[in-house]
């Protein structure tokens, strides 16, 4: 009987620690997205308004289009991962006509707000639920949000070159 009680206490401890770690991981997702939003705003601020239309080559997206593409993807990934309805149709921002600094900044930051608000609604258990991302990829909701994070990081990194080509200085790295 004593061994059974010890096993029960140990099992309860493991479950409690596991739940706390899972909730901490969910909170870390939100913190990372909040940091990424602030970092992205620094990129948007660093680019002179006159260079928002800059395209390094004719085949590439403009600086504005890079960030509007990033925002479109933020909505698509977060909507799929969390089940929240996206307020923006896929690709609508990048295809829009107003690519001014003010509008791009507003639209991009709103996409981060959507991701953050949607992620905050997920419990630790929901983060582990499986979904089919874009009808093709079997991932947990957390993995889908991680892929979204990777995508926005990729495009923000590309923007470093655009900012340098415009003669401006990109923000310093912001890992923490």
Question: What topology emerges from the helices and strands here?
Answer:
Elements: H1 2-46, H2 63-82, H3 92-95, H4 101-120, H5 124-127, E1 130-133, E2 137-140, H6 141-165
Antiparallel strand pairs: 1-2
Quick recap:
The protein has 176 residues and is mainly alpha-helical.
Structural class: mainly alpha
CATH architecture term: Up-down Bundle
| Integer average pLDDT | 90
**CATH homologous superfamily identity:** dinb family like domain
What is the number of helices? 6
Beta-sheet strand percentage? under 5%
CATH top-level class: Mainly Alpha
The share of residues in helices is: 55-70%
Largest sheet: 2 strands, antiparallel
| Count of beta strands | 2
Q: Largest beta sheet: what is the strand line-up?
A: 1-2
- Return Rg in Å: 20 Å
Distance between the termini: 49 Å
Number of domains: 1
Low-confidence stretches: 10-20
Shape descriptor reads elongated
CATH level-3 fold name: Four Helix Bundle (Hemerythrin (Met), subunit A)
**H-E string:** HHHHHEEH
Tell me what the structure shows:
Residues 10-20 have low confidence and may be disordered. Helix 1 (2-46) runs antiparallel to helix 4 and helix 2 packs antiparallel against helix 6 (141-165). The radius of gyration is 20 Å and the shape is elongated. With 176 residues, the chain is mainly alpha-helical. It has one domain (2-165): Four Helix Bundle (Hemerythrin (Met), subunit A) (Up-down Bundle). It is 67% helix and 5% strand. It has a two-stranded antiparallel sheet with strand order 1-2. The protein contains six helices and two strands.
């Amino acid at each position: 009987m004593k061994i059974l009680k010890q096993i029960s206490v140990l099992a309860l401890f493991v479950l409690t620690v596991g739940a706390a770690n899972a909730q901490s991981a969910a909170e870390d997702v939100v913190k990372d997205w909040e940091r990424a939003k602030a970092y992205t705003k620094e990129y948007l601020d660093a680019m002179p308004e006159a260079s928002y239309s800059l395209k390094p080559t004719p085949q590439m997206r403009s600086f504005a289009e890079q960030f509007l593409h990033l925002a479109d993807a933020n909505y698509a990934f977060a909507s799929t991962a969390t089940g929240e309805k996206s307020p923006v149709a896929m690709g609508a921002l990048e295809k829009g006509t107003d690519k001014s600094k003010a509008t791009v900044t507003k639209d991009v930051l709103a996409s981060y707000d959507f991701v953050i608000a949607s992620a905050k609604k997920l419990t630790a258990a929901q983060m582990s639920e499986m979904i089919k991302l874009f009808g093709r990829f079997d991932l947990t909701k957390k993995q889908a949000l991680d892929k979204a994070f990777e995508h926005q990081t990729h495009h923000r990194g590309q923007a470093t070159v655009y900012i340098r080509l415009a003669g401006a200085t990109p923000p310093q790295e912001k890992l923490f």
